[in-house]
Amino acid sequence: MADENPGTGGTAGTSKENAEPTGGPHSSAESSGADVAAQRADGGTPPASGEPEQAVDPAGVTPEGGNRLAAPASRTREGMFGVTGSGDTSGFGGLRLPGYAPAPAERPFGGWFDQFADDLAEALQERGVARGAVQQITIDRGEITFYVRRERILDLCRTLRDDEGLRFEMCSSVSGVDYGEAVAQRLHVVYHLLSMTYRRRIRLEVALDVDDPHLPSVVEVYPTADWHERETWDMFGVVFDGHPALTRILMPDDWDGHPQRKDYPLGGIPVEYKGGAEILPPDERRSYS
Amino acid sequence: MTDIRPDAPTPTPAPERDTTEGTIFTVTGGDWDTLLDEQHDDRIVINMGPQHPSTHGVLRLVLELEGETVQQARSVIGYLHTGIEKNCEYRTWTQGVTFVTRMDYLAPIFNEVGYCLAIEKLLGIEAPRRATVARVLLMELNRIGSHLVCLATGGMELGALTGMTAGFREREEVLHLLEFLTGLRMNHAYVRPGGLAQDFPEGWAEKVTELVAVMRSRLPDYDKLLTGQPIWRQRLEKVGYLPLDGCLALGATGPILRAAGLPWDLRKVEPYCGYEEYDFEVPTATEADCYARYRLRVAEMHESLKIVEQAVAKMEPGPVMVADRKVAWPAQLSVGSDGMGNTLEHVRKIMGQSMESLIHHFKLVTEGFSVPPGQVYQAIESPRGELGFHLVSDGGTRPVRVHAREPSFVNLQSMPAMSEGGMISDVIAAVASIDPVMGGVDR
After folding, report:
1. A38 versus B97: which is more confidently predicted?
2. Shortest Cα–Cα distance, B400 to chain A (Å)
3. Is the pLDDT of residue B140 over 90?
4. Do B250 and A224 touch (CB under 8 A)?
């Protein structure tokens, strides 16, 4: 899997080794020996006591920069202007830009984040949720993101909603992100939770393999997630196991494919002008991105 | 077809006759009694919409009725899905404004501001003060216009047709003013990442003050026309009840949540655009019914007028776009004889004097600016509730993901909770009080 993710090493910030991306179907905290063996083969340090890493430690030790990246990198870039198939006219054709992987945060987080992370770790422990549920914490632009193991998302949401010190009464939004075909674990499901009591917002993020896009539904904890999850299924093909009626919501019932996947074409026809001039549809125009 | 009684009359084929236009069939219906046996109750499933004047746009409701009582209600959406989120991934960040403004078409300024605030958060920049105050001014004008449409269409759906004509008359005033200020009545694309497309035209302050005066004189008419009117109250009171816990579970925000007693307004609790500087109230009610939501919308219009007045006073001369020329749109727009376009001065400069300016203009307009990688979520208080933008960048000049947490979409989920167990006529009142805009629901 590591070869699918060439950009991880460069920008991973605190990751020490050429980090293996978080394995898809075997990414559980209670994972198998094969998983550990694969890590050893990659030069990663073997995790202690069967739990590869734990992001939040009440003692203040934060091994967020563990041996595996919870947040896979986005796509890598070559050249300068996104031009392919022509000669290197710009002289920048040899440019290689690594993909971006959100760096794990380091203590102190600042603001309410430290206390909150400790409270969450404590609450999870109280409820017997495996400590490896949270794989990584990232703080960026004043927003905190918890990268979560998919098996634990429901437990985590229930804890966040019910614990008195956390009280995330509302799930603002659930949506998907597709990071593109060349990226390992390209499908992400992103939850935006809101605590009205403490006036805090957090983000939970789960990375999924495109071949196994399953994760538990949180509808039983947040009924509002019903339509959000249906939309994410419709647009990204993420299967929320346990959803009461996971059907298409925006596209017609008999539609093929999931339109917001990056490999699904935008479609469109060229705009024609008098005299034969033509403007290509947007997805066929030159992209500089 | 086990429903059919054994002694039911065999259906006869429809009689036909040939005309010059083709064959015409005369189809006549039978009686339910001849078809259903006694085991079946009179429970029927009816489909309402998507093309129905009372469903608030292309919303389709599937209602299971027993007599006139709604046993189950489900909404079917997607008829106005236009792929705006996907389209944004194929344009530059600036071009995205033109798309998002078309989502909730009754509150376009809110879409633009929410989207631009999120981009500015990603870029780590802040719009200049004059632009921020102007955004507040525009948003509050837009809120008045949006609430007026809610009253107007809601009134029409409930048979208060004068409410509709009055509401649209007042909204027209708001649209005229927005046209004067931004150049367009709707779909403005006026708010841009980093500020505004251009400054307000001359004489804007007088026009805005004029509108405030007009609204101050006309808004009380709604109290006379609707608020105390017995029919209006009977149609709305104790109808579409959704208490606070229901609101939180279903994610309902905006007037629905505040009508249930929680003074949750993002302008107060998570101020953005400098809302903490403005003096205004957050109207709340505890009845949690359609009537409370109606009253809150009227009260919010009065509060918006207060904010507009304060914003006019706060407007100081200054730039309306960030100084960073790597983000600021290079064009300087002006109105010429052939409509709006780049100023002659700018064209003269880039075509005749400065090759670098021409390159810069060309690159910024075709390529766009790069946004540092990362993701943000920015929520603002739209007339319908929490409008959130989740933007993801991978460092390119186009977004990886633009997701709008549309309040219409989320609030519409509460329709079954509001209407099941009630009368079919109350479904209309409940939907009207949710005020979903299908452009926002389906995006």
Report:
1. B97
2. 7
3. yes
4. yes
B interface test, pick of A250, A260, A262 with most B CB neighbours within 10 Å: A250
Distance from CA of B224 to the nearest CA of A (A): 37
Indicate the helix (H) or strand (E) that contains B46: strand B43-48
| Chains A & B: contacts with CB separation below 8 Å | 122
Its pTM stands at: 0.83
pLDDT at A263 over 50: yes
Task: Convert chain A into a string of H (helix), E (strand) and C (coil).
Answer: CHHHCCCHHHHCCCCCCCCEECCCCCCCCCCCHHHHHHHHHCCCCCCHHHCCCCCCCCCCCCHHHCCEECCCCCCCEECCCCCCCCCCCCCCCCCEECCCCCCCCCCCCCCCHHHHHHHHHHHHHHCCCCHHHEEEEEEECCEEEEEECHHHHHHHHHHHHHCCCCCCCEEEEEEEEECCCCCCCCEEEEEEEEECCCCEEEEEEEEECCCCCEEECCCCCCCCHHHHHHHHHHHHCCEEECCCCCCCCCCCCCCCCCCCCCCCCCCCCCEECHHHCEECCHHHCCCCC
pLDDT value at position A35?
Answer: 40
Output DSSP code: residue B423.
B
Residues whose CB is less than 8 angstroms from the CB of residue A191 and which lie 6 or more positions away in sequence, other chains included: A153, A157, A171, A173, A174, A203, A204, A205, A218, A225
Q: Of B190-204, B228-242, B343-357, which gets the smallest average pLDDT?
A: B343-357
Interface ipTM: 0.84
Q: Which residues of A touch B90 (CB under 8 A)?
A: 266, 282-283, 287
Residues of A (128-187) whose Cβ lies below 8 Å from B? 140-141, 143, 145, 169-173, 175, 177-180
CB contact, 8 Å: B85 with chain A? Answer: yes
Contacts of B121 in chain A (CB under 8 A): 141
CA distance B166 to chain A (A): 34
CB contact under 8 A, B249 and A143: no
Q: B14 pLDDT exceeds 90?
A: no
CB < 8 Å to A196, chain B: 248, 262, 264
Which chain B residues contact residue A192 at CB under 8 A? 377, 388, 390, 405
pLDDT digits (tens, 9 = 90+) for B197-212: 888 888 999 999 999 9
Look at residue B172 in the predicted model and tell me its pLDDT. 92
